[in-house]
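Posting for a labmate who doesn't have an account.
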Amino acid sequence: MTHSIDTGTSNSETSASRLDLKTFSPEIQEAILTRSVRKKQKISRWIRFLKELADIDWRAEIVLGQIVRRMILIGCVLFITGMVGVLMVQEFLPWAIVVFTVSLGFGVVFGINLVKFLKLRKLDVANDFRDLLLPLLEALEEDVDPDQRVRIDLDLRGFRGRKVTETRKLPPGRFIRLRLSTKVDPWLSLDALLVDGLRLGVRIENHHQTFRRKYRTRRRKVKVKNKYKKLVFVTVYLAPNTASFAFDEDGVDVLRESNKIKLREKKGAPVCFLRRKFKLGTSPAPVEETIDSEEVIRMIMTLSSRLIPVQKRS
């Protein structure tokens, strides 16, 4: 689900000239250039910062889409005029020169758009923070202690900025060859103190899988195609204030029947971890979508439902 950004801008305001990196705040410039954000600040400041970054990323995507469509159109015209010019060279040389001149003009326009595309591509970061982290923080804002700082380590490189961490051959089945390569993307680490004294942590890791399939068509031609799959691993932990809350161990044991959950001692205090895997299906292109923030909220609620006040502990 995409988190909508109300920018109040018109199409004319989403031009490339209004997306100049130098006009952004130093924080935004650093986040875009380094493709990462690692700091501690109050949740209200995090939300303001991420909204500004999301607005820029959203507008950059719109302009990039416009440029790509324009380049495709110009490329088609270039191909057609080039072919017409070649066919006219021998018999209609003057007209061929005119056609080639027109084609050259379209080539210049194509080059200008290519430069704009490469420049704006630097502003386009992975969408996970926009679609998941920002709505998650907005949902948690009332539960997080407003006077405490929230620590977030955010990696904005996404699929294209990661290197392959594992490659292995799979049983080919009906294919000539089938190979799986995986890119691991641990893009979010969040730690916050809630108003009731609970320490909350969220870790999210994407696994981008590419299935490279080599096969033979009915016409006996050999082709190679890729299919992409995205797995999202979410780990949530809660560490209660031992003076007020404790985990109901019997209740945690019940959760173990259908969840990957661990209850352990850390620095003399109980910490409960819940880990889930979400499959986002397959696609002929790298999967940009992510899970809904409600899934993470449900995991937090699942853990918090196993907390009991200390005075009621049996």
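Reply:
Got it, the structure tokens are right above this. The chain is about 35% helix and 30% strand.
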